[in-house]
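The following block was generated as part of the benchmark described in Methods. Ligand: adenosine-5'-diphosphate.
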Amino acid sequence: MLNVKNLCKIYSPNNANVFHALTDINLHVNRGEAVILSGISGSGKSTLLSIMAAMDKPTSGEVIVDSTAISKLPDLHASAYRSHHIGFIFQHFNLLEALSVKENVALPLIPQNLDNDTISSNVATAMRLAHIDHKADANVHELSGGEKQRCAIARALVNDPKLILCDEPTANLDRENSLHFIESLRELKTLGKTIIVATHDPLFERVDFIDTTVHISDGAIRE
Ligand code: ADP
Ligand code: MG
């Protein structure tokens, strides 16, 4: 489903401060698999995830999702692709605090020009799946950390994405909420989602539904 081929990312390639953030990354993920990208801070996890999410471009190499070379899409097409096919969950939740849960969850659908009934129904489904439907009308600033991450899960699900990418999703959660988050990922896997989680949280080491753990250090995959 997802193929990363000879991927390299060099920051400031035309400058004296050349930095090789990713070096010749090759990765294959099948549909429905759950993969952990593990590595210490600064190893290149977020750089790799953002290229897989079509939010950033590699210096060379490519990312192919099904038959689309998403790393080569022009920016406008990359945004459209993301809006239809990718759910992204961030460490800092990245919610709009002044809006309600259901308004935050609806945000990724805005570029799709859907009618209001379809938006409401997709938002309700995503909130139910993420177990945050009872807080639909609450403002985000009233939520606990665990509830904020559930709101972020709902937002990542609202476009019914085939690929869910998570960047340090438990870094701002206590142990109990981290375990809840891991259970939500299990449910998403049951729904057939392909899941990639960048993390150095040791709680993920004991998760039984993880198919592969890929170790990254200094921007390269270690066997
Ligand atoms: P991780 O998510 O594993 O902590 P990152 O992918 O964020 O690692 O960063 C990998 C390396 O790339 C780090 O050394 C970081 O400082 C560097 N880096 C990240 N973004 C930029 C940027 N925009 N410009 C220059 N260097 C960057
Ligand atoms: Mg990171």
